[in-house]
Amino acid sequence: MNPYRKDFPILDAAVKGRPLVYLDNAATMQMPKQVMEAMMNQQSCFHSNVHRGIHSLSELSTRRMEEAREHIAGFIGAESASEIIFTSGTTAGINMAARSFIDTFLQPGEEIISTQMEHHSNYLPWRETSPEKQGVFLSCPIDRNGDLDMDAFSSLLSPRTLIVAVTYVSNVTGAVNPVKEIIKKAHIAGAAVLLDCAQAMRHEKIDVRDLDCDFCVFSGHKIGGPTGTGILYGKSEMLELMKPVLYGGGTVREVTDRVTAYEDVPYRFEAGTPNITGIIGLDAAVSYLENTGIENISETEKELLSLTEEILAASDRVNILGKPKERAGAISFTVDGLGSFDVAKLLDTQGIAVRSGHHCAMPLHQAYGIDGSVRISPAFYNTPEEIGQFETTMKRILGMQCTMHN
Asked: How many CA atoms are closer than 13 Å to the CA of 295, on its beta-carbon side?
């Protein structure tokens, strides 16, 4: 029996009269009861605004939020808690970093490198913002196996490169990028690096100082925390030079008719009332990962993903996207003669939840000449028996397709 399932009440749910088989964890991981309890405790015992109150509840709320910042800083190996900015998720964090970094540092003609495998959230903010400052946006291609083309990446790097924005793990193919090599090459060229760790946090032990990335971004809901939470990590020397992109309460130390004095980092980047309950939940989710062990999580998920890949590879009518050197978290495929939405809907009739479509990664799908795929992304609370249920249902779907064609 999987020892983790008891912590996730939703896994006892039924869908279409059948037990839920939840294989859409790359989109959102389910929430353990420990996270729910931490959020309920905050709402019940010290729900109050932070930083600007001197009464006891506000002081307790502030202390707990700052303890969460300290804890998360330690979890990812940050040098200081001041390098941790609370956001509403990876998308918000990358948009904030892109806008502030470009406004602060980009000079006309300088280049930004992203990649063909990025989620739109680590592609569009750079591509759409850089032309405003006469910057040049470049996209590094993938190779035929779905890995990043490192020769092409090296050729794109130049003294004009200002920043490289790259994912650690593809949200479509599960390809794991050689990020330490990418960061080292970028730094030799004089460029900064933003690492999108949304898909990596559950599969890889992230140590930002060991990686030496300049920015790191991830979401709470990918690791068992609530939606609407996330982290933007930035090296202190970067953040100290950057201006906020959102203005208002909490971002300033003094405002006069003519002068604005910004707050210290990280508060200058946290305008308005933060998602305090969500931050407490994110902190509890990080604790849950630590207690479970990233190594245990990664090992379990790799076994389930390998089993899934074997099942998919057994049919000549199933086309797996990519064959990367290392795969983590997700695998995507198409079925000859069936659209991705059709496959996902048929799986749903048996209670099996998967993702279908372009997964907010259109350039990657265009590289494969398709407009969508079906994605399977097991988590450590899934079981081999559930993968077996997926296999049984896929055989029925493929059998139905044969019948339709005969």
From this structure: 0
Question: What are the phi and psi torsion angles at 401 (to 5°)?
Answer: -65, -40
Catalytic-labelled residue, pool 45, 140, 360, 402: 360
Average pLDDT over residues 40-63: 92
Is pLDDT at 1 greater than 90 in this prediction? no
Is 289 strand, coil or helix? helix
What's the pTM value of the predicted model, to 2 decimals?
A: 0.96
The SS3 call for residue 53 is coil
Helix (H) or strand (E) holding 366: helix 362-367
Domain made up of 5-23+294-405: CATH architecture: Alpha-Beta Complex (3.90)
CA distances from 150 to 118, 142, 350, 380 (A): 15, 8, 41, 31
**3-class SS shares of the chain: helix, strand, coil, % to 5:** 45, 20, 40
Is there a contact between 95 and 119 (Cβ–Cβ < 8 Å)? no
Exposed / middle / buried, residue 83 (Cβ in 10 Å: 0-12, 13-18, 19+): buried
What fold does the segment set 34-291 form as a domain? Aspartate Aminotransferase; domain 2 (3.40.640)
Q: Nearest Cα to 376, choosing from 305, 316, 322?
A: 305
Annotation marks residue 402 as catalytic: no
Query: At 405, which helix (H) or strand (E)?
Result: helix 384-405
DSSP SS3 for 16: coil
Distance between CA atoms of residues 238 and 281, nearest Å? 28
What ranges do the domains of the chain cover?
A: 5-23+294-405, 34-291
pLDDT tens digits, residue range 76-118?
A: 999 999 999 999 999 999 999 999 999 999 999 999 999 999 9
Check: CB of residue 327 under 8 Å from CB of residue 176. Answer: yes
Contact 168, 119 (CB under 8 A): no
Name the pairing type of β-strands 352-353 and 230-234: unpaired
